[in-house]
Design brief:
- This protein is α+β, with helices and mostly antiparallel strands.
- The chain folds into two domains: about 25-55 and about 215-465, Naphthalene 1,2-dioxygenase Alpha Subunit, Chain A, domain 1 (Alpha-Beta Complex), CATH 3.90.380; about 75-195, Rieske [2Fe-2S] iron-sulphur domain (Rieske Iron-sulfur Protein, 3-layer Sandwich), CATH 2.102.10.
- The protein is built from 13 helices and 20 strands.
- An eight-stranded mixed beta sheet has the order 13-14-15-16-17-18-12-19.
- The N and C termini lie far apart (about 50 Å).
Length: about 475
Amino acid sequence: MNYADPNKTMVPPPGEARCPAISTQEIIAGDTVPAPEWVRQESYTYLGDEDISADRYISADYAQAEVERMWPRTWQFACREEHIPEVGDYYVYDVGPYSLLVTRVGEDDIRAYFNSCLHRGTKLRHSGTEGHATEFKCPFHAWSWNIDGSCKTVLCDWDFPHAPKEELSLPQAKVATLGGFVFVNMDPDSPSLEDYLGPDALAHFKAWKLEDRYVYCHVKKRIPANWKLNQEAFHEAYHVLATHPQVCPSNADANSQYDTFGDHVNRFISPLGVVSPHLYGKVTEQDIFEQFVIGDPSSLEGAVRQLDEGESARAAMAKLYRKSFEEANHVDLSDVSDSELLDCFSYSVYPNMFVFPGISLPMVYRFLPDRHDHRKSTMEVLFLRPKPTDGSHYETAEMQVLRDDQSFTEADEMAPGFGGILDQDTDNLLLQQEGLEAASKKSLTLGNYQEIRIRHCERSLDRYMAMPPLDVDWRTQQKCGRH
């Protein structure tokens, strides 16, 4: 069926239209090394075509309602396990007004305490910090807690007969781990992380083996846009032609695949080593291959720049990447699919996490609202490297915080060429934020397929916004603990 018929004599039902070019699954099926099941799965659901109200991006009242209804009820990526490798290590995770002390209490026991003294509310540790503790002591009046959350000291306890120490354990959020990630949820009645993700996404997470990686680059930057606009800029490949035209010769943007899994996870697969359908007839296989080799000199130095007769650029790129990664990491990747080596897999775990689980350069994004201004947010980028297989020491990267006016290219250890791509993405966001506020059309119109991930996330938000504000007595959370 030709969906691109200019006479529109054949119009498919809503949600069934696809780019008439070769599909993502057809591209992957032609690879030399076959892809695993999690790559070959398709799971798109049409979710309607109504406009999305702009109020959710420009209204301070809406942002406050998110803080009360959505943020405390959802599972969120708080840190990596390697951020807190030893008993007593802690990591402060903040979202909006909430602050949690994510603490390793035992080898397999991680807890998340609400970061607030039970005396007069002072934070026990500053926002954005991590470190090691034998106790958590309030700097104001010296009340203190053991790392297991039990109350250690009430200064002048003779004056507090109404507040016995055995009733003053620190309240806890729920904690779960998966793939080396530590997740938290402030709602004691929330579903398990496994149920939240659903069986398909859970199986995908387990297949990636990201627990065998560690963070070697961690960059944070404030973005002049609402947190949802910030993350939605990365939900689709529809923007590639206009925003990243330099990558189109080797990026199958318009024929990318989009999937939704349950209520909280979605993804796209964007094949690389294949020309954009927008450039059909303008780019040769040799052009695709040369752009790739020239564009990644660090890992492909000295690579042959000429395709063999009849060889596709994608096949040659997979061969080069496999060899380069094997030599750099002393591993055998003969059974790893071409798709896992080359393609862009982007998974969103609602509300704040993106995972890109490729073999050569897995990375994670995190998006969070600015506590004081709903028109601003933060974006974090974490790159993951394989842990040494010989047991040798590795250093988990400290987070670099860029100034608002700095380029992502200025971050240490940023992947070659990638900082510029991030700058292109984020440069659009101030214009979008201000444009929505200036518009006479107070809504966003989304594509049924290429922008399904945006609609999927906004539907998730709608479900939480329909709930009453979460009001949980702190005593019910004293033993919430690890899930």
